[in-house]
Design a protein that fits this description.
single chain; alpha/beta; Rossmann fold; 5 strands; about 15% strand
Length: about 150
């Protein structure tokens, strides 16, 4: 069985870590699949800092540092570095697609690591779905757990 790779931006991690109503339940679907070994969640090293304090949200308190750090060390999460190639691709995304710089880092990371799905709750970024990337990246909200069917 091949493992599906899905990119998560900071917004998805924050929804899970802050247990945001409605959003955390959606994140559970991807996380459940990841725990089963069906999905590898990929994110940028930028996310490690960005999740601590996103605009419009309270900062994650320092007493939660160990919890946050351990979470990102889980075997089903792959953190990739921001390098010059990603940063330069992000510049192009800002100039040509009007994507905000931090979001552009996330999109460029997904693109340059060959990922076709990026999950986020950022509505502006979701509107860019299937307009960026080569091949085009589907940008969507995390998918809620699949409910079992009754027989």
């Amino acid at each position: 069985m091949s493992v599906e790779k899905i990119y998560w931006d900071s917004d998805a991690f924050i929804a899970h870590l802050q247990n945001e109503p409605g959003k955390a339940e959606q994140c559970a679907g991807t996380l459940e699949r990841a725990r089963k070994g069906e999905v590898l969640i990929v994110t940028s090293a930028l996310t490690l800092a960005e999740v601590l304090w996103m605009r419009g949200n309270p900062p994650v308190p320092k007493d939660k540092a160990e919890i946050v750090q351990k979470f990102f060390r889980r075997s089903f999460i792959r953190v990739v570095n921001v390098d010059r190639k990603i940063s330069e691709r992000a510049q192009v995304l800002v100039w040509n697609h009007s994507i905000k710089p931090k979001d552009a880092i996330h999109v460029a990371t997904a693109e340059l690591h060959g990922l076709s799905i990026l999950e986020t709750f950022d509505k502006g970024l979701i509107r860019k779905s299937e307009t960026v990337g080569n091949p085009l990246i589907v940008i969507r909200e995390p998918q809620a757990p699949i409910q079992g069917k009754l027989l």
